[in-house]
What we know:
Layout: H1 4-19, H2 37-56, H3 66-84, H4 101-117
Helix pairs in contact: 1-2, 1-4, 2-3, 2-4, 3-4
Amino acid sequence: MHEPGRLFREAWIAGVTRHYPGRPKPGYITPWETTPDWERAAAAAVCELVLAFVRAADGATARLTRSQKGRFVALCWIGQIYRQFPDPKPSYVADWDELPGWQQETDADIFERIEAER
Length: 118
């Protein structure tokens, strides 16, 4: 299996490239090697949480909707943001319904990419 944080980041970049309208911000597509340490740690933690969930469900996560999969990733990411920042910007901890469509699709893609690694 890939390094968990790298797997997450590669899935994020692929999703942003696919779904972001127009040209994404440079920080959205920063390669793993130059991603900040806190973000690497957060990516690894979320990847491990998704993997644990998929394994605990013994593959039944394949029956989840894309929205359910994306929501799980988004919620896990919010937990990491609160862990890293005592007073994060509201946009960093926005609930699922407040996220732009491109980010919802990217989060679902991330879950499915990690799910495929099971």
